[in-house]
Amino acid sequence: MGELRLMKGNEAIAEGFIRAGVDAYYGYPITPQSEVMEYLMLEQPEKKTGMVVLQAESELAAINMVYGAACTGKKAVTSSSSPGISLMQEGFSYIAGSEVPAVVLNVARGGPGLGDIQPAQSDYFQSVKGGGHGDYRQIVLAPSSVQEMYDFVSIAFDLAYKYRIMVLILSDGAIGQMMEKVVLGDQIPRMTNQEIKDKYDSWAITGRTPGREHNVITSLDLDQENLERHNHHLQAKYREIVEKEVVFEEYAIEDAEYLMIAYGTSARICHKAVQLGREKGIKVGLFRPITLWPFPDKRIKELSNQVKGILSVEMSAGQMIEDIMLAVESKIKVEHFGRYGGVVHSPEEVVIALETKIIGG
Amino acid sequence: MAELRIEDIIKPENIVFKKTKLFTDKPLSYCPGCGHGVVHRLVLEVIEEMGIEAETIGIAPVGCSVLAYEFMNIDMVQAPHGRAPALATGIKRIHTEKFVFTYQGDGDLAAIGTAETIHACNRGENIAIIFINNGIYGMTGGQMAPTTLPGMQSSTSPYGRDVETMGHPMKITELVSNLPGTRFVARHAVHTPALVRKTKKAIRKAFENQKENKGLSFVEVVSNCNSGWKMSPVESNKWLAENMLPFYELGTLKDE
Ligand SMILES: Cc1ncc(C[n+]2csc(CCOP(=O)(O)OP(=O)(O)O)c2C)c(N)n1
Ligand code: SF4
């Protein structure tokens, strides 16, 4: 049995970084996620596991420090909030192009621009469609509890190494700041240099082992035919991920006539909204995508044969709804509801939206 | 007449110059006469002589030397424009026993990457930065660089750099020498054999310092860009000596 603690989401994920055997955290302060680095600096994991924690001069530097460390096969991570994540997009694109494993946390806040420091889900497009340049994808995991903030660290690193891809944990200011009980697992030891050599010597730049060719990590290929081939390879990898790695959760779906689709904080609110709706006699269920990319479109398509209408609930002006509509192929009514700019909708508002936009509409 | 065989001519006792072992067999992509090739060679000779090729990780920039990893037979990564010192930091912090160096041009290091440069220097990262100052953006076709001299023509300062509107050439080497994190800061050149030898010594020191955990070593090499300057290699070396060196004075700025 693990260790039970009461923690903020930001603290739980920071503890998750340590216990997942992460080698390096490089970050830059920004609300509402500064507790991640503050926690790590206080805990001094370098004394426990040898994990490096360094405050960088910017998010640009932080993501490039992660990129460098990741190129050597080490587990590297950074965290930020929306404006800082925007600054990192160059790095995300390089990480995708050169295929190194890395994990990034976004504790999203209201935008655009400097926006505010309240929770928001308006970084969905940037996260799942790619905010950087080029044809690339990153796996996006959406935790909706403090426990998941902790649990998703190991899952993210497993996926990152399995596919040599960047995994973005897309959370928001509510989950980062709220306190909940969390069960912590055992310390996973950091990989030794020998383990890294044994496992990743085919690509990691650890120093040219005698007898092998030099390893090079680059996203550059000036021969367009070669670069197209490389892109084909990336797309094949992305298709495999779409095939194998979709994760979601369903609640009160068996007899549902209406469906709410929501992730993260909105999913928690919708959980309550489903209960309120059912008290009113509305047969409504909740579908929660846990991987935002790959998006659970197959399952949503199946469910669209069962329900009469879908309410996409997101703390945004309506971003995820585009992916839902693609999945549903216009067969049933799909509407968006959400407060945004840092405002969080209430379960009551969600039920009213369901009644007016989907059932009555 | 008997056939002439290469082995008969190139006997060990006749060899006065040979390809550095750590060069790959790829033909260099640099313009003939460009200083980049010389500095590549010096870096590789130092790594070879120190016997540290299995422990060295290099970081290539964006610029003419973006393909340095094609020529250097060591493990390398290609960094986004200006970010090499951040990658080097990320690597060195968890590979304290490794030798880590960046190889960067002036646009990469002193314009788009100024923040990464200054802060890696200020933190005293235990790495070597090899900085090629050719006063221009070579790769993109000869635009003005932060190091372009006053009055010097480039494709984006076609009437000469007007310091009133375009800013002054930046002596970033002097700047970083003032930061407590740097231990060894020097400016050299490679357009004469004597200067090549001095540059090599400085690069060697930059690598040796890492072994002793001394902090950041920064070696600037004032170099030519004959293509960007629109000169022959010989003319460009002459121009470098007459124009670049009075402004970018050679020597050791700091050695602690
Ligand atoms: C983010 C970004 N901006 C601009 C460029 C285009 N670019 C490529 S090389 C270069 C200038 C490099 O000049 P310098 O660092 O002086 O190196 P040199 O080519 O002279 O060796 C620029 C602006 C780029 N690749 N990436
Ligand atoms: S463009 Fe200039 S810096 Fe680039 S290879 Fe040619 S001479 Fe050298």
Can you put this structure into words, describing what you see?
The complex is a heterodimer of chains A (361) and B (256). Chain A has 15 helices and 15 strands. Chain A has 361 residues and is α/β, with parallel strands linked by helices. Chain A folds into 2 domains: 3-184, Rossmann fold (3-Layer(aba) Sandwich), CATH 3.40.50.970; 248-359, Rossmann fold, CATH 3.40.50. In chain A, helix 1 crosses helix 8 (146-163) and helix 4 (59-71) runs parallel beside helix 6 (89-98). The longest helix of chain A has 21 residues, at 224-244. Chain A starts with a strand and ends with a helix. Chain B has 256 residues and is of the alpha/beta class. Chain B has a single domain, classed as Thiamin diphosphate (ThDP)-binding fold, Pyr/PP domains (Rossmann fold, 3-Layer(aba) Sandwich). Helix content of chain B is 38%, strand content 18%. Chain B has helices spanning 6-9, 35-50, 68-71, 84-92, 106-112, 114-123, 163-166, 172-177, 193-211, 226-229, 233-247, and strands spanning 56-60, 75-78, 99-105, 128-133, 136-137, 143-144, 182-189, 216-222, 251-255. In chain B, helix 9 links the parallel strand 7 (182-189) and strand 8 (216-222). In chain B, helix 5 crosses helix 6 (114-123). The longest helix of chain B has 19 residues, at 193-211. In chain B, 54% of the residues are buried. Bound molecules: thiamine diphosphate and iron/sulfur cluster. Iron/sulfur cluster is lined by residues 30-31, 34, 36, 64, 134, 138-139, 225-228 of chain B.
